Input
Amino acid sequence: MIKSNPKSFLIIVQEFLKALKQKRTYAVFKNGYSVFGILWGVPVPIVTIGIDLYSSGLSPTLNNIIEIILSHPFHFFFLLHPLFFGIVFGAMGTVRYNKEQKIKEFEESLMRKNIELKESYKKLKELDELKSSFLSMVSHELRTPLTTIQGYITFLLTEKPGTLNEAQREYLKTSEEETGLLNHLIEELLDLSKIEKGEFKVNLESVDISEVITKAIAALQLSADSQGVIMENNLPQDLPLVWADKERIFQAVTNLLENAIKFNRNGGRVNISSFEHPENKKITFCICDTGIGIKEDELDKIFDRFYQAEPLGKRKFRGCGLGLAITKSILELHKGRIWVESKVGIGSKFFFELNRY
Ligand code: ADP
Output
C-alpha cells in the first residue's frame, strides 16, 4: 500500500503526467476508463444548458440550445467536460494498466527465477548425493587397508616377529597413535554419510548414564593426564536412568570430553555435572572446561559439519570439525538437545539434555 506522504503523492503525479503522454489514454476502444470518463462528463453540459434554458423560460429546441450556448461562452467549457473527463479517467486507466503490466512482468520474472532455483536445487541435491556416496565409498576403501596396517603394527609391537629396539618401539607407538586418529576420522566420515542418507539410527532403552559417563572419563583419562588436564566427575550418586542408545551416547559424551581436553590448557580442568528437571522429566548435563573458549559469533556455527572455530592456517589442534555435528545428530535422535555457553580465554560449557526413563 502506498503511504500518503509528499514523496508518494509526487510519484502519483509523475505517473499521471507520464500516462497523459501515452497513446493508450486516448484509445477509447482499448481503454474502458476513457469511455467511462466521457459518459461521466456528458451530463455536465446537459444539466448546465438545461438549467439555463429553464431559467430563461425557453423550450429545449436546437435553435434555443445554440442560442444559449452562444450567449454564454462558459457553456463551451461545460461542453468540453466529456472530453476532459475522458482524458482524466483515460490517464487513470493507463496508470492502472502500467501497474498491472509491471506486476505481470514481475510475476513472470519471479516464475522464471523459481524455475531456475528449482533446477539449481535439483542439481545441488544430485551433487550432494554424489558427494555422500563418494564419501562413504572412500571411507570404506580407506578402512580396509588401515585395519591391515593397524593389525601389523600391533603384531610387530608384540615382538613375536622379532625383538624391537627402543627407537623401533617408539616409531611403532607413534604409528599406532596416528593410525588410531586416522581410524577415528574415517569413523566420523562414515557416520556423516549415514546421517546424510538418513541411515543414522539409535536404539533407545533404559541406560545408566552415570555408568556411561564414568566409562567415557576412564577412556580419556590417559589423554587428559598427558595434557595436564584434571577431570572431575560431579555427577550425583543417584542419577536416574535415561532413554538412550548406550553406544551412541557414549560416542557423544566422548566427543564433548575430547574437545574439553583438547581445547584446554596445561593445568586446566574439565568438570561434569547434571541438573534434574522434575517438572518435565528431563536431565541436563554440563561438560565445563577452563580452555580457550569460543567467540560469541561462532557459538552457533561450531555445530555445523566441518566447521572449526579457528582459521585453518593457525590451527594447532587435530580434528576435522565433525565431532559436534555428529554429537548434535545423536542428541536429536534422542529427542534431546545440545547448546553451548562460552567465554574466550575463560572456558566453555557444553550442555546436553536427555529424557528420563
Ligand atoms: P574438531 O574438534 O574435530 O575440530 P568438533 O566438531 O568437535 O570438531 O568441534 C568444532 C569446533 O568447535 C572445534 O574445531 C573448535 O574450534 C570448537 N570447539 C569445540 N569444543 C570446544 C571447546 N570445548 N572449547 C573450545 N572450542 C571448542
Remarks:
- Residues 211 and 239 are 10 Å apart (CA to CA).
- The longest strand covers residues 269-277.
